[in-house]
UniProtKB/TrEMBL annotation:
<feature type="region of interest" description="Disordered">
    <location>
        <begin position="82"/>
        <end position="101"/>
    </location>
</feature>
<dbReference type="Pfam" id="PF01910">
    <property type="entry name" value="Thiamine_BP"/>
</dbReference>
<dbReference type="InterPro" id="IPR002767">
    <property type="entry name" value="Thiamine_BP"/>
</dbReference>
<protein>
    <submittedName>
        <fullName>MTH1187 family thiamine-binding protein</fullName>
    </submittedName>
</protein>
<dbReference type="InterPro" id="IPR029756">
    <property type="entry name" value="MTH1187/YkoF-like"/>
</dbReference>
<dbReference type="InterPro" id="IPR051614">
    <property type="entry name" value="UPF0045_domain"/>
</dbReference>
<feature type="domain" description="Thiamine-binding protein">
    <location>
        <begin position="4"/>
        <end position="97"/>
    </location>
</feature>
<comment type="similarity">
    <text>Belongs to the UPF0045 family.</text>
</comment>
Length: 101
């Protein structure tokens, strides 16, 4: 299982407000047929699942702002793909919380 952080930034928009574009990207996540889990944050989105599935979803996320009128889209992706044991978003948070005790 991989964890991906993705930030999609629409450029060439008519307004500096990006909420409608963000909503179109979140719709891609909500409608994804792939077995993924996601967490929306104020600055990016974290997704977990099988790497091939995640990359397919990221591609659709990248395309969404174009469908909403953006002239250009910049997408940043960070992949955490650990293969020696299953890692999840919850497990990573739990590990840090345990170390804080």
């Amino acid at each position: 299982m991989a964890i991906v952080q993705v930030t999609v930034v629409p450029l060439g928009t008519e307004t500096p407000s990006l909420g409608a574009y963000v909503a179109s990207v979140v719709r891609v996540l909500q409608e994804a047929k792939e077995p993924i889990t996601y967490q929306l944050t104020p600055m990016s989105t974290i997704i977990e699942g099988e790497l091939d599935d995640l990359l397919a979803v990221v591609r659709r996320m990248h395309e969404a702002p174009f469908g909403s009128g953006a002239a250009r889209v910049s997408t940043s992706v960070t992949i955490d793909d650990r293969r020696d044991k299953k890692g999840t978003m919850a497990q990573k948070l739990h590990s840090v919380e345990e170390k804080l005790k």
